[in-house]
Amino acid sequence: MTRGTTNPNRLRRMDRWIAAVHGAELRRTTDPVAVDLGYGAAPWTAVELLHRLRTTAPRTRVVGVEIEPARVAAARPYAREGLVFRHGGFEVPVPGRPCLIRAANVLRQYEEGEVADVWVRLCARLSPADPATGSRGGLLVEGTCDEIGRRHVWVALGPEGPRTVTFATRLGSLDRPSDLAERLPKALIHRNVPGEPVYAFLRDFDRAWAAAAPYASYGARQRWIRTVRRLTADWPVTDGPARWRQGEVTVAWGALAPRA
Questions:
Q1: CA-CA distance, 14 to 251, in Å (whole number)?
Q2: For the segment 49-60, what is each residue's pLDDT rounded down to a tens digit?
């Protein structure tokens, strides 16, 4: 069981990213089911996930899953059309295979060595890819954020495994990009040491941020955009200015994956 701290709007950055990146997949799916795994002591994140996903995929249904029965009972008065709450854990107790599983601030209490097995288990529950329709399959989004959602880092995985890592922040709260290191997901947080790719990435991120200091006079957003554009020369950034403007940058997982 997690600590359960759940503030309203805490996961807004992750939700907006999911809606933008995975919205087409949700619209394409016959029965788009999203799972909020480990929603905590209050159901706010599941309620907000339903609202945000339905703005881009109106048929989406959300299932909130918690391992603590008392939390499930407390959440049930908030159930509504398209939103239910169930007792369970990594087995993901929903019929069929969901199009989305969001697990925010869940694996931070586990050991690093346990993460890969949990990822495999959750990815096996995702809807499969379908080349005939162009579907890449379901999406697992697993990451960590601070208590009010200003800083957030998450890994996106498909049925085949990890795809990308996204760094997202409220730009006004940032002194330098490596401030996000404290919110690295469990698979990466202990790898922020010399010799590991994520350490090199954050080092280069800080250097690019310093080089972009003259753009600070135009605002933190312009400085961030310039910084990320500089990063693309050496790192496989997978998104573009439309996402950078939101205080985000997404990098291919393979570039940041821990060394064996």
A1: 15
A2: 999 999 999 999
